[in-house]
Amino acid sequence: MDYCTLVAAAGNSSLGYYKYQNVRFAAPPTGTLRFAEPAWPTPETGINNGTYAPARVGCSAQEDCLFMDVYAPANSSGKNLPVMVYTFPGGYSYNEKSYSTPEGLFNLTSDFIFVAYNHRLGIMGLASGPTFQHQGGTSNTAVWDAQHAFRWTRKYISAFGGDPNQITAVGFSSGAAQTLSQMTRFGGNAEQLFDRAYVMSPGVAAAGGHYQSEQIWQNLSTSVGCAGGSLDCMRGVSFATLFAAAGAFQANSGYRLQPRLDGNIVADSMAAQLYQGNFNFTGPVVVTHERSEANGTLQAGINTDADVVRYLRIYYPAMTDDVVNGMLVRFPASAYSSPALRFADMRNTFAYTAHDIALTNALNNNTWNALTTLDAAVHGSDQAYYCKTSSSVCLSSSSVTSAKSPIPYKHSIS
Fold first, then answer.
1. Predicted structure pTM score
2. How far apart are CA 96 and CA 93, in angstroms?
3. What confidence score (pLDDT) does residue 364 get?
4. Which of 176, 183, 196, 173 is nearest to 366 (CA)?
């Protein structure tokens, strides 16, 4: 049975490609599907011309947000082109599928399909904890959403001329962490959903801390009138109220919303699972990191050596005392001009390069590794060179939206 019919929102044969905007790859995660794993979308009776949501719809702006964009060459029908699936950065808190678009890459070659998808953010994508899970909540729904997007691509990309056996996962920062999470999900006991990967500065590691997860769930639920953490009640709170309350709690408490170990889709931290061999990915893979990843935006509130220890606890709640003490020795205060820079260097190791090393080790050094020293070489310095929409080396996204097809190019997805 057909589930949707798409009309290109932008592009034409002269431009050389079409953009299919706001393709619904999962059912709206609202009502009983809030805090639940994504479901397949139901059949659509209308024609989706990209206006089901704003072009830059994101999951921090509205709850019905599980859309993707697909860019396909104008002559792709019937072909078996390689596919790039892009996961945006933003620390699981902000940004959306349009963070990077492929116009600049299409200047080089249009012989590929580009897919970018949304996943749930903030508390909607990262809720966890014993009470939450015992009442039937699905923890780490952001990771489930990513899995679903790759499964959708495997299932449907051939309708656009893409080869489901030639999928490259590309991600930066938390988007790269999502890529590693897909390699290690369910302790490596799940199907491999992509065939290659390009991993840039993977950050925001999954953490322990069931106690912290429980506390934020209980405090947050109480603040919005759902004392005791009732899941049914929390599913009835307005999206705007709940998202704002979670953001305020995070800002006031220093709690870091990030994937949490749940004994299910996130069985352990990415690095631990890679070292233990609990992953399902054979490569090839490109792995990159910046020279001074965490020095670009120093963590506010770190003014003393005691603050360094406090923020290590906030970022890495499962870190034991011996590891903390070892970090203080490995990164001596005398080597830094400020405690904030000292903590930043620690984060360079734990938040970024440690993941690159773990992946390289897991694949027996059969990886392509790169150190970026462009500009200040802080986190994200390299992204302008990978065709971020604001980059001078890429066309503006406006060149796509203004190029309407006089005869819309249509796809039926079945």
1. 0.89
2. 10
3. 95
4. 196
